[in-house]
Amino acid sequence: MLSFLYPLLTLLQPGVLWIWLNPYKPMLIVSAIVLAWGLFARRDEPRIAVLSPTPVRWMFAFVLIQAISVHYSGWLGMIGMVGRWYVYPVFVVLSLLMIRDERDLERYIWGMLLGALFVIGYGIWAKYSGWNSVWHPGEHWDMGGRAGAYGMYHNQNDYSFIIIQTLPFFYMYWRTERRFLPRWLLFASILTSILGILLCLSRGGMLALVLEAFLALLLTTRRNTKMLLLPLFLVVALAGISYQWKMRAENQGSLYTYKDAEDTRLDLWHAGVVMFAHNPILGVGSLRFGEFANSYVNLLPDDIGKNAHNTYLDVLACSGLLGLSCFVGMIVSTLRKLRRRIADPPPGDRLEAARMAVLISLLSILFRALMDAKEYDWSFYMLPTLAIAVHYLGGLRSQAAAAAGDAVKAPVPARDSPRHSLTPGRPRAHPAGSSP
After folding, report:
1. Which terminal residue of the chain has fewer beta carbons within 10 Å of its beta carbon, N or C?
2. Residues 110 and 6 sit within 8 Å (Cβ to Cβ)
3. Are 317 and 272 a contacting pair, CB within 8 Å?
4. pLDDT bracket for residue 411 (50, 70, 90)
């Protein structure tokens, strides 16, 4: 049950959704329960060596570099930065403690999907309810008529990340699901996710959605189906991109045109390059791009305080080559876990479906990260968790298949073999009249 609740509550963000819960630190309490359960329950069952996978080691190194990058703030500043980042590798470790078998993995994915579905639905409801706004403790955000949720996913760009992260799982599980109600829930979730991208008016989100759909078409359909659907896909993709650009322009009018957005990104990217050139090893300090960017480049007043609008450049400017090396190492090692197809998967195999969903999702998120700075997004930590779990469970399945094959191939001794017909400790009987 915890393997279902932990990812669900993580995405639900109960301390943000219900502000009165925030002082009680609900996720800290849940994490402590998960840790106790992971360490002491089902101890006789095999489990993942949670600190051994390479992506996990890169995560801890990344957090360490984030702390060191603010060394000029003293020990308290570095400890405070650890407090900002430690939740991500700890989340991965606790998640891996809970995933012992394929049933745990499926529960975990369902928890992630239902938590994401609530957030996606909340964003759509907030738009159509007339609120068009979200809440942080003590803060109020005006969404300007665009779909957006709360907390980690409060604006249209952040909101598109959770959709891009989970849409491949909705799709792959829909393809493999045979039960009536779950299948229709997954199909409705696919439509809701697409609607969420259209309503949030995120241009980068739409481009990532198009890439994701193309990868799904390329990697999950047969050759003849690809050739048949490709022209239709191109027409729908171009229509979707045109629609998103048109509706975003109508939404913002002359206040913030596409040219303004392009100029803003170019100015921020230039600032990031200059910041890196002056601080190549450790950057200017984790999460401090907006604080220092105007000190290196004269930004327009509206651009002061913004992030780099590019995850990789933001990491490079804020924590230098060391930070980017750890971040890229985490991503590359995760992709390596996904290289191999699950050995001889039966039709509709959920483990292979999960592997494919993680691969499509991660590639799409990496593309989406080119247009927004969100190295702290849950997708960069949930997807490696799932990749490690799929790799581990696929290895267990291969070992079980190999053991079963060896048992079948083992020679069976003949029944009349004298060596195997004797019972130890008993003399052999001889027929009457014969000599031993």
Report:
1. C
2. no
3. yes
4. low
CA dihedral 147, 150, 153, 154 (to 10 degrees): 60
Contact 217, 226 (CB under 8 A): yes
8 A C-beta contact, residue 251 and residue 146: yes
Residues in the chain: 436
Predicted local confidence at residue 265, as pLDDT? 85
Q: State the residue for tokens 């998640």.
A: 95
How far is it, in rounded angstroms, from Cα 273 to Cα 321?
A: 12
CA distance 298 to 269: 13
Q: What is the pLDDT of residue 137?
A: 43
Reduced to 3 states (helix: H, G, I; strand: E, B; else coil), residue 412 is: coil
Residue with token string 């090893």? 281
Q: How far is CA 403 from CA 103, 218, 395, in A?
A: 21, 34, 12
Using only the alpha carbons of the chain, give its radius of gyration: 27
- The whole-angstrom distance between residue 56's C-alpha and the CA centroid of its chain comes to 14
Closest alpha carbon to 191 in 145, 249, 124, 146: 124
CA 272 to chain centre: 26
How far is residue 432's CA from residue 123's CA, in Å, rounded to a whole number? 93
Nearest to 214 by CA among 232, 233, 186: 233
Longest Cα–Cα distance in the chain: 115
Per-residue pLDDT reduced to its tens digit, 115-158: 999 999 999 998 888 655 444 444 455 666 788 888 899 888 99
Q: Supply the DSSP string of 256-288, one letter for each residue.
A: S-HHHHHHHHHHHHHHHHHHHHHSTTT-S-TT-
